[in-house]
Amino acid sequence: MSIEDLSDAGPDFELRKFEVPEALHGQRVDVVLANQIPEFSRSYLQQLIDAGLVRLRGVAAAKPSTKVRVGDAISIELRPTPQTQAFRPESMALDVVHEDADVLVLNKPAGLVVHPAPGNWSGTLLNGLLARDPGAALLPRAGIVHRLDKDTSGLMVVARTRQSMDRLVQAIGARLVRRQYLAIGHHCWRGDDIVQVDAPVGRDPRNRLRMAVVDLNHHPGKTASTSVRPLGNGNACCLVECTLQTGRTHQIRVHMASLGHPLLGDLLYGGAPLAGLQRQALHAYRLAFEHPTSHRMLSFSAQLPLDMVNAMDALGLRYNRIIE
């Protein structure tokens, strides 16, 4: 939807008003909006500013970078867009591994998109969470604190309160949440028993639709660290356990490709369909973290999905003793 579409959208909108709190004095107006209305992206809020739908001290805000003062009155007309329409409850079956008042641990199937985005504005995990728990609507991203790719299966933790969400985000940032994956890579493993991959990940400068290992002296990106442990070889393939120290977009897929072992079924990074696998052979099988309120250590495991089990059988890979 264009800016013109937003400003001409008619009467179907929500008007919100608030005053700038002392903690946000001197900040940009788009930063203040993102803080006060966290359920919408900053880019969407910037579109509303450009469309003249944000009023600061009684007049239209000139630009997103306009600075605000404590006590300034702000009003904003939230117009419907595909993005805003996406945040609607949709009933769906969810494989719940653990649930309490503060957190939810889920086993996500391959094919389920985690968060609405262009091309997938409905039918996402976020929609399912909103339908399952009305309280999720009060949390940014319905409590989602980390993501799995659409075609990656396995364990995710979701917050059920704002305090739990803040603490889980902090724990992930401090590398205190242990996330381990099973992956099947092309070619037999011939290297060390454990390989520590410390290679920055950013947008591939030759193909903006994918990520790549980049040189931070020449291209934007973020440091990324993955520990890779081989578990066995099969017919021209290998089974590995990958432990994340960071959580960059497509990190395991990029790092495995950089080692010369692109994942089976991962067409984006040089893999090919094999043994019936039509998606990347990647499963988040172990998750451990400190509970955000009780501070108990929690640990969970998720059995391999049937498509990966069948592929391993066909490829001569053993798996029965991997998950206790």
Please provide a written account of the structure.
Mean pLDDT is 91; it is low at 1-11. This protein is of the alpha+beta class. The longest helix has 12 residues, at 162-173. The protein is built from 8 helices and 15 strands. The strands form 3 sheets. Strands 5, 6, 7, 8, 9, 12, 13, 14 and 15 form a 9-stranded mixed sheet that branches. Strands 1-4-2-3 form a 4-stranded antiparallel sheet. The relative contact order is 0.11. A hairpin with a 2-residue loop joins strand 10 (201-204) and strand 11 (207-213).
Number of helices: 8
What distance lies between the first and last C-alpha atoms, to the nearest angstrom? 50 Å
Alpha-beta classification: alpha+beta
Percentage beta strand: 25-35%
Radius of gyration: 22 Å
Mean pLDDT score, rounded?
Answer: 91
Can you give the helix content as a percent range?
Answer: 10-25%
Properties at a glance:
single chain; 324 residues; alpha+beta; 8 helices
Brief description of this entry?
This protein has 324 residues and is α+β, with helices and mostly antiparallel strands. It has 8 helices and 15 strands. The termini are far apart.
